[in-house]
Write a structure and sequence with these properties.
This protein is of the alpha+beta class and 136 residues long. It has helices at 13-17, 21-30, 45-51, 61-68, 83-91, 104-108, 123-133, and strands spanning 4-11, 34-41, 73-81, 117-119. Bound molecules: uridine-5'-diphosphate and magnesium ion.
Length: 136
């Protein structure tokens, strides 16, 4: 049985800056995740703080919010069978050093903070995150 889901991907500033957006989007398309909508934006630190508020108690929170607002990002709605988990698999582990071969973070990530992509971690969070950026 198919299990069609939507999820949110963000191409983070380090990857937009290195012109990796098209390469990353082609990985999604090749793996049967369709791009329903996409836009390039530059968010404020306050918006980043709101988006990442689940991490507000973490030691890296302030740096994370500064980073996500440091330059343009591309936000993308992906749709496909088991899209949340599939996107997480394509992204690879948070730390590019330990991400599996062939994953986006292994291919393009620079460090645990500059790890090129964000992906929703559950269907419920995907809805919240999509609503944050898009009127869908
Ligand atoms: N992060 C960081 N230092 C850490 C852990 C995480 O800078 O020690 C950043 C990293 O960019 C990560 C984001 O915080 O992508 C959100 O962390 P999470 O644990 O949700 O990882 P993800 O879901 O992105 O793999
Ligand atoms: Mg996460």
């Amino acid at each position: 049985m198919s299990n069609k889901e939507k999820t949110l991907s963000i191409i983070k500033p380090d990857a937009v800056e290195r012109n990796l957006s098209e390469k990353i989007k082609s990985i999604f398309s090749k793996n049967n995740l369709s791009i329903l909508d996409t836009k390039k934006i530059h968010i404020s630190k306050d918006e980043a703080a709101e988006f990442y508020k689940v991490h507000q108690s973490k030691p890296f929170y302030d740096q994370l919010c500064s980073y996500l607002s440091s330059g343009p990002i591309e936000v993308i709605i992906l749709e496909g069978d088991n899209a949340v988990l599939k996107n997480r698999e394509l992204m690879g582990a948070t730390d590019p050093k330990v991400a599996k071969e062939g994953t986006i973070r292994k291919l393009y990530g620079i460090s645990i903070d500059k790890n090129s992509v964000h992906g929703s971690d559950s269907v419920a969070n995907a809805k919240v995150e999509i609503n944050f950026f898009f009127k869908h």
